[in-house]
What we know:
With 130 residues, the chain is an all-alpha fold. The protein has helices at 13-16, 20-39, 44-66, 70-96, 101-113, 118-129.
Amino acid sequence: MTTASNAAVPVSAATARTPPRRRARVAWLILLLSWLCFLLPLGWAGLLLGIALGLCGGVLAIVTMFKGGVLLGLFPLLLSLLASPVLLLVGMVYFSGLIDDDYLQSHDRQRYERGHDSSDTVIDVIDLFT
């Protein structure tokens, strides 16, 4: 004999399914975090984290499209493909402008003001190609 308390309640696919709007909100949140990583001065960590989050947001947008929210997933997918590279370049240009040119010039001047010997010539040639 089985009692009602011991019987397993079957979970239908409709009750276990995540609504497309929630999935779309998570895709937007992940994309916003990705774009924030591109714009914050985190160096290579921000670049790698931003790319990983951008890919996750794009995949989640595709999943949203396949699960019934075509328009809900279309805009995050398009923006992950179009806006992410633009924001990456904007972040790189902005933070390359933050590097102090006077510091770089004084650093180079100090390096070349000291006496040169034969080992410095090899280093100078390597510096030309890097």
